Amino acid sequence: MRGDSTTPAKFVTESGLADFGELDKALYLAFYQLKKNNIVEFSAADAARWISDQGLGSPNASRLATNLKKSRDTVPGKTAGLRQLHLKFRTKLEAEFPQLSEKSQDVEDDGTILPAVMYSGTRGYIESLAKQINRSYEENIFDGCAVLMRRLEEVLLILAYEELGIAAAIKDANGNYSMLEGIVRDATGNSKLRLNRNSREHVETFRKLGNYSAHSITYICRRQAIKEKIDDFRYMIEELLHKAGLKK
Question: Structure pTM?
Fold first, then answer.
């Protein structure tokens, strides 16, 4: 689910809703639904269902409707028979529960470039990069996607060198890792890394593609530049995950 990660059960616990009266339970849950699901107007039956769903009782909808109508914390909705929360009440609860207005840091994606089965169970930062690659492509953020693809390539190359015990081959005299250009140059001919032919051909392809998007003043990455190379990227990442010891 996109949006913040606060669940109804967590909201109930944090607000102490179990100890509230029937009307306040309805008002607080209406606020939750407003912030989470953009439900602006609601009926007494809606509120009664929200209360019941959270195991907070089984209110009488008719009685609840009367109390909601009398409450100063609601005003008539645009639709007959529906209510909405008063601005003053919404403002009060927004100050009390700011987390409901915060977006989650989780990235939702459809696995367009890298399917989840490839990277699930590897490392958190690799999973995050893979999801960002997918999502940026799906949202037409192609320059961002290209840069992230280059970054994932660099991360996995370094991890592969470390796993194979040959990291010194891509470090300078001070023990710092070389720029990606130097790493790629070594990777294409390193006999211990032993990339297959497809990966040897494309490590430079994705380095350059990411560089154009990151550094060129006039270059704008288009969908086709990535789309026609998805299979090659996927194949390369799959191999690097294995070389890095992250996939068996």
Answer: 0.62
